[in-house]
Amino acid sequence: MRVVISIGGSVLAPDLDSERVEAHASVVEALAREGCEIGAVVGGGGVARDYIGAARDLGANEVQLDQIGIDVTRINARLLIAALGSQVDPKVAHDYEEAGDAIRRGDISVMGGVMPGQTTDAVAAAFAEYVDADLLVYATSVNGVFSADPKSDPDATKFEEMAAGELVDVIADIEMSAGSSAPVDLLAAKLIERAKMRTIVLDGTDPSRIEPAVLRGEHSGTDIIPEGGDEPTYWAQ
Ligand SMILES: Nc1ncnc2c1ncn2[C@@H]1O[C@H](COP(=O)(O)OP(=O)(O)O)[C@@H](O)[C@H]1O
Ligand SMILES: O=c1ccn([C@@H]2O[C@H](COP(=O)(O)OP(=O)(O)O)[C@@H](O)[C@H]2O)c(=O)[nH]1
To answer: Does ipTM top 0.95?
Structure first.
């Protein structure tokens, strides 16, 4: 089974904590031991936001800010690589071909950002499509996709499952409001829909939730069901 796991910066590196990075690496290694081929994509978190904020104050334009964000995601990717054993490609893949080659060689491949105008959510979706992944997992700071932002709306309800087209609609509504954050970005949602990619959005603040989700489909987040896609098959069955 081939899996791409997107580890949000808010989850991997809300601050610099080697034990947290180690815990994520352990999950990736455990999945690899189970025979999964793994691509990981790492976000920028609070450090990226701090750098972007400082550079904005200094007059940088949006593309320059994105480039700073990409650099930070790649530093976080290096942290995850440092925590993974010999099975990982020691280079942070800068494009999908490099990442795909590493996976085909049998290595775990780790990416950060690739180009301005998007986030690592979209990188993970494109990576998953490029390598024909069986599953894409977003480990983020909320336990799935909700009808509204659960951090600000106490009446928000979680989608246990939703069609990829519904995900696009929900995300498009969020992205209409400036400065808002979303469980995945709009480009990622569109790519998931186009690729008919089976996708899970879950709370990755405790990384041990990722393994049962990948191996057995057991999680309490949101399943994104591809329209016209295959029924899920689980590695452990
Ligand atoms: N409809 C929604 N469903 C789930 N989360 C939402 C929604 N709208 C906004 N959010 C927000 O999206 C954010 C997603 O996590 P974020 O902190 O950006 O993590 P990451 O580092 O994984 O990108 C959360 O802060 C959550 O409050
Ligand atoms: O392919 C990419 C990935 C990231 N970024 C930039 O890097 C920041 C941090 O990436 P992350 O995916 O963590 O974004 P977040 O989830 O914090 O919005 C983003 O806001 C963008 O500015 C980018 O421009 N292109």
So the answer is: yes
| Ligand 2 in reach of 120 Cβ (< 6 A) | yes
Domain end, chosen from 72, 89, 118, is at 118
Query: Are 225 and 198 contained in the same domain?
Result: yes
CA of 157 to the centre of ligand 1 (A): 14
The finding on whether 148 has its CB within 6 A of some atom of ligand 1 is yes
H/E element, 224: strand 222-225
Binding residue per annotation — 199? no
pTM as predicted: 0.96
What is the number of structural domains in the chain?
Answer: 2
Calpha distance 60→192 (Å, rounded): 32
The amino acid at residue 79 is L
pLDDT tens digits, one per residue of 10-28:
999 898 899 999 999 999 9
